[in-house]
Amino acid sequence: MTAPTPSTRTLDLYDKLREDLLSGRLKPGQKLQMRFLMEAYQAGQTPLREALNRLTSEGLVQSREQRGFVVSPVSKSQLQELTMTRCWLEALALRKSMEAATPEWEEALVVAHHRLARTPRSLNTEQFEDNPDWERLHRIFHRTLISQCGSASLIGFCDHLADQLYRYRRVSIRRVFSTRKIGDEHQAILAAVLDRAVDRAVQLLEKHYRDTADVLLDDPAF
Fold first, then answer.
1. Which of 6, 92, 102, 193 could pair covalently with 10 via S-S, beta carbons 3.0-4.6 A apart?
2. Does 1 have pLDDT greater than 70?
3. What's the mean per-residue pLDDT of the chain?
4. Which of 96, 97, 130, 129 is nearest to 112 (CA)?
5. Does 153 have pLDDT greater than 70?
6. What's the CA gap between 175 and 154, in Å, rounded?
7. Shortest CA distance to 165 belongs to which of 208, 119, 200?
8. Is 45 exposed, middle or buried (0-12, 13-18, 19+ CB in 10 A)?
9. d(CA 210, CA 201)
């Protein structure tokens, strides 16, 4: 039997809740009381529960028996596991993409990097203020890197891990915004890909992800 298609209202709530979970507006470990959600999102219980169940399947929300829903907590052990798994999967995806490289793929990658490099990371030069355009273009660049791998399933797994790690990355970037040269890292990855230096490209991509994680893993207060 085919599963019922989610209603438009459920999908709208899912998108709003997901954005608030990833952005940190809904804090890790926060109880998601139904009355609070109904008031905050101007929604009824049924579409809210449907949206929360979908977010639970993605790991962003946890369902506690007899206790409702809570925002999935963050931890160093989870950060280590997610980062390790992302490095494994994207290393494979990047290798396969480079093996199957085409002029069109390389051109798309150059364009994606160009657009990202021209967009400021922060809306405020004095203190970090997240730029939604940069985030969107950053995701496009990284997805384009692995888009030639030939496996939609592998790309889907990588997308899922990127979502899971997004909450950590937002905390990390705030702490090193003024010192870490993210643009130089992206440029180096691109150059290695265009030079067909597979091992070098993979090493740089993995280091790019591990450096983000290490900011939090090395912080005793996290």
1. 6
2. no
3. 92
4. 97
5. yes
6. 31
7. 208
8. exposed
9. 14
The candidate with the shortest Cα–Cα distance to 71, out of 144, 20, 131, 8, is 20
Q: Which two tokens stand for residue 13?
A: 């709530």
What is the pLDDT confidence band of residue 64, given thresholds at 50, 70 and 90? confident
3-class DSSP state of 59 = coil
Q: Give the model's pLDDT for residue 182.
A: 95
- Token pair of 7, please? 């209603």
Residue 207 Cα to chain centre, angstroms: 16
Q: How big is the chain by its Cα radius of gyration, in Å?
A: 19
Return all residues near 115 (Cβ < 8 A) that are at least 6 apart.
137, 140
Write phi, then psi, for 121 (nearest 5 degrees). -65, -35
Look-up: residue for tokens 């390389």? 106
Alpha helices in 76-151 (DSSP H): 76-99, 103-117, 132-146
d(CA 208, CA 211): 5
pLDDT band at 170 (very low <50, low <70, confident <90, very high): confident
Helices H / strands E in the chain, number of each? 9, 3
40's tokens: 């905050």
Query: In this predicted model, what pLDDT tens digit does every residue of 69-81 receive, in sequence order?
Result: 999 999 999 999 9
How many CA atoms are closer than 13 Å to the CA of 180, on its beta-carbon side? 18
- How many other C-beta atoms are found inside a 10 Å radius of the C-beta of residue 52? 23
Are 48 and 38 within 8 A, CB to CB?
A: yes
